[in-house]
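Quick one, tokens below. Sequence please?
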């Protein structure tokens, strides 16, 4: 099945996969991909995970196939990025495989069915594994008003999320990465923490807040973000999103396509950011390591650099189910 899908247009193959998984995850047909992964429980951000291996945001944008991903052995799933209103995203084609490099370039642009649709899917899921919700802003929302979109989504998903990830690091939404520094970052983190406290009081439960950052940051920029995470008492950080750096894939046919590069070429860059973050944060703010994990060695390197949890996306596309099982065995 995996080989057949690689013969199709990448976005068509992805949509077809999600459609099949959404219809089979809670049915006997999950037999075809169900596997028993290592039970290696770990507690991070006050949450219990059956293993350290999660599915990264972007794969199941609308939370349609959570039950299927649990059947595959994932310890947790991060859905989204979701925005207040449904949006189509950027013009197609917008997803490109780079098979020689085990990589993907995407410029999807937060295509999703909107936060209300996601909430409906979260309510309908059967799985009890932790589910993080990755939230963003609509393309039509000016950057100076982006904070309202994040607050809106946060209020909608708070009751149903295990944790909430703030995505300000996608390269595919204009000016979004400018929110990773200065007054925009301070205002956003401060307002989100205030809303978290308010929702904790009204809902009677504390939902951790996590920030997702880019790999294309200087050491100084990583340091300032780490300082902000500590100042605003954020609960975690995802490192990293996709990269705009093309230096390692110039031999590939699609190297010049605009968008974020994920997969094996991102691995070292992502791990370097994790290393820097851990120098600043230590064990005070847990790090979720994502970016280019295609083997057990990659996963171990991210954990040794300071990550507490791991997430897969492109590596899962190329390596399939065995990668989940192998990574879950890491102690």
């Amino acid at each position: 099945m995996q080989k057949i899908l690689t013969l199709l247009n990448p976005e068509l193959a992805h949509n077809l996969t999600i459609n099949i998984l959404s219809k089979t995850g809670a049915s006997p047909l999950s037999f075809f991909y169900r596997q028993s992964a290592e039970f290696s429980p770990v507690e991070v951000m006050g949450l219990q995970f059956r293993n350290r291996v999660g599915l990264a945001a972007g794969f199941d944008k609308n939370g349609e196939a959570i039950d299927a991903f649990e059947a595959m052995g994932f310890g947790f799933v991060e859905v989204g990025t979701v925005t207040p209103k449904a949006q189509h995203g950027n013009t197609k084609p917008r997803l490109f495989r780079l098979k020689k490099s085990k990589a993907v370039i995407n410029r999807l642009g937060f295509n999703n069915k909107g936060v209300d649709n996601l909430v409906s899917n979260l309510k309908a899921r059967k799985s009890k594994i932790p589910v993080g919700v990755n939230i963003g802003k609509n393309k039509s929302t000016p950057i100076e008003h982006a904070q309202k979109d994040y607050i809106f989504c946060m209020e909608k998903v708070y009751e149903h999320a295990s944790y909430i990830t703030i995505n300000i690091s996608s390269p595919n939404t204009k000016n979004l990465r400018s929110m990773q520094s200065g007054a925009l970052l301070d205002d956003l983190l401060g307002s989100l923490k205030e809303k978290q406290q308010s929702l904790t009081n009204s809902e009677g439960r504390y939902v951790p807040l996590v920030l997702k950052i880019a790999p294309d940051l200087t050491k100084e920029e990583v340091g300032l973000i780490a300082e902000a995470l500590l100042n605003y008492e954020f609960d975690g950080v995802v490192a990293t999103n996709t990269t705009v750096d093309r230096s390692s894939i110039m031999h590939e046919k699609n190297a010049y396509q605009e968008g974020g590069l994920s997969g094996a070429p991102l691995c070292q860059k992502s791990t370097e950011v994790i290393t820097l973050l851990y120098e600043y944060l230590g064990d005070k703010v847990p790090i979720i390591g994502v970016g280019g994990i295609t083997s057990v060695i990659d996963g171990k390197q991210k954990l040794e650099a300071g990550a507490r949890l791991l997430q897969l996306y492109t590596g899962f596309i190329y390596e399939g189910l065995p990668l989940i099982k192998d990574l879950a065995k890491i102690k």
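The chain has one domain: 17-328. Residues 17-328 form a domain with the TIM Barrel fold (CATH 3.20.20.70).
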